[in-house]
Amino acid sequence: MSSRRSPSETCNSTWVSLARSRLTRWLWNLLPDKSSIDSRQLQILTAIHGGNHLKGHRYLDGTKAYRLHDAHGAVIAAVDGADVSALEARGMIASNMKFPASVYLLTADGAKMVRTLSAQRGQPSAANATSARLPWRG
């Protein structure tokens, strides 16, 4: 018994794959423009890509505070929750869902976005970013 496909099965498989890829592209185009992030959101992504940590601190009363920490754990800045929500909705960051402080990690799409937009804007590589370069650093 061989596990080879007949020519008709191969043809059907090819058409199914093509239909899936076209459907995926069509659905992807319906999503909001992933490149329409503002400068604050790009700075957050760049900071995470450069080695800083974005944490969501949850409290028992239900409030949340988002803070950017450097590699040593010191707080660099408070981050607006709307920016975090927008980045998460676009799939640029993902949470590890821990309590009381969850860490937001850069996704592959987020890292690609940082590299692409940094190159377009003529900025240095995000991998070289430090907390000293962040505009909110006092």
Radius of gyration: 20 Å
Q: Which second-level CATH architecture of the largest domain applies?
A: Orthogonal Bundle
The number of helices is: 4
C-alpha geometry: extended
Proportion in helices: 40-55%
CATH fold type of the largest domain: Arc Repressor Mutant, subunit A
**What pattern of helices and strands is seen along the backbone?**
HHEEEHEEH
The end-to-end distance, rounded to whole angstroms, is 72 Å
Give the neighbour order of strands across the main sheet. Answer: 3-2-1-5-4
Overview of this structure, please?
With 138 residues, the protein is α+β, with helices and mostly antiparallel strands. The protein has two domains: 1-30; 39-133, Orthogonal Bundle (Arc Repressor Mutant, subunit A). The protein has four helices and five strands; from the N terminus they run ααβββαββα. Strands 3-2-1-5-4 form a five-stranded antiparallel beta sheet. Residues 126-133 have low confidence and may be disordered.
Question: Strands, helices and their partners?
Answer:
Layout (H helix, E strand, L loop, with lengths): L6 H24 L8 H11 L3 E6 L5 E6 L5 E5 L1 H9 L3 E3 L5 E6 L1 H13 L18
Antiparallel strand pairs: 1-2, 1-5, 2-3, 4-5
Helix pairs in contact: 2-4
Q: Key features?
A:
4 helices; 2 domains; 41% helix; five-stranded antiparallel β-sheet; alpha+beta; Arc Repressor Mutant, subunit A; single chain; 5 strands; 138 residues
What would you say about this model in short?
This protein has 138 residues and is an alpha+beta fold.
